[in-house]
């Protein structure tokens, strides 16, 4: 008789951290675990939400899942996968897919999908060009929204022109337009994304059937060598490094520099310094509108708001340029390898029909796949960063009216609570009596601030609920790396003696040994030194400038098509993703070996060798 399958904790067994009950209860009712959730499978979305969530920041999950669900379920009508449910406990976001299992419904959805998705595939380039126009217009609309303010008295023009609307109404109008624009952005985001994955997944499934021995990595290398806007910010940092050398101002850029001092000095050193500062402005608009995170937290500021990440990369790039080292992404080599792989596998096919299908599928994947990374620049980064900065304007206005002490405190309110605080101020201004907010919000803000800090001290299970017999949602497999095999590995981590080996997805080939640098948040990136192996929960394309320092990368979460896997391949950086527990099992400074071709990480030394000392 076989052993019973060891399971994950049930959602109902998770307890709210003592003392944070009120902060937990403040999240919207529809995000709380409820009866019946124990019957389902959930996993912690540490890829997008690796840190406890502030109350306002939960809009980044809500708006995303509203739009993803609509496009999966109602717009493109994916045959076997609907939307994604989300829940939050102790600041941690858990998600669960909604599968279509009824064969008649699947058949009906196949017919709908073919009419809808195939139209997009046939008209991809023109629709994508129109998409960029839409996104840039949406960004322009958000930028054009005025800063909220309240005058002592209405300007005379209000009465003399018969405008008939007072200034306090503008607060509601601006705020609701911000929220509507953010939701609209996520609809644009998912207009193409799942179809981009779908094209690749169809090719992936064909290859797995046609070539049973083929590795996931070999298939993913057939779509490497892409041009996408999300790589452009790093290209701009390299360009600025080159210009610094050409203009003879490179000596100003050193490790640990004061950015303000460097900018002030360059302004004084003559034409060369001023010319470099002009080049910086050219790069900043729009390419520095990327956040240091992945676009889901208000405090992951953009490069434009905080220049430290791009400036930290300049000394390394300058040294390499002066030494004559190539700092370009190996795009040409990747394309050459890709074309060779495509040709080699094509020769193994037996029939003209299979070869025609293969040509069609790889051709479509090459056309659509750059969008899978390219959209991030416009959506998660440029727009989201702008959105959070516009919300900060309300934070400042309410701070100035005594609602709280700091502009950033606004992010401790849910989006609905913030609207109520705005209405409170509108009432107060109109009535001429003090607002209620200054008595109401400071204690709540302090309580939630404490809850965020407390939640950050506690771990959370990687998954909850019933272990499914199979994972059928291709996005969950490709993006998050959640498979039946990876779940079994997560469940067996604590069994028997601890092993010195971790297994994950082979993201990019190469075998490298070096000291592990465990980075748990964006703020810790500065700890990376030349020759380190980055160990993190997840990374994103805007960390690319620091890839020059590291020799390999390892992540807890992610599949063969996760952003980290894609970026690692594009930079030729050996990487293993989706290990489940690398940040827990590997100590900072330990010497490890990364085998990116086999998806194995080996801990070579038991004790950490801390190099910060």
TrEMBL record:
Coiled coil: none annotated. Pfam families: PEP-utilizers. GO terms for molecular function: transferase activity, transferring phosphorus-containing groups. It comes from the Bacteria. Residues 529-599 form the PEP-utilising enzyme mobile domain. InterPro entries: PEP-util_enz_mobile_dom, PEP_Utilizing_Enz, Phosphohistidine_dom_sf. SUPFAM superfamilies: Phosphohistidine domain. This is PEP-utilizing protein mobile subunit. It comes from Sphingobium nicotianae. The lineage of its organism: Bacteria, Pseudomonadati, Pseudomonadota, Alphaproteobacteria, Sphingomonadales.
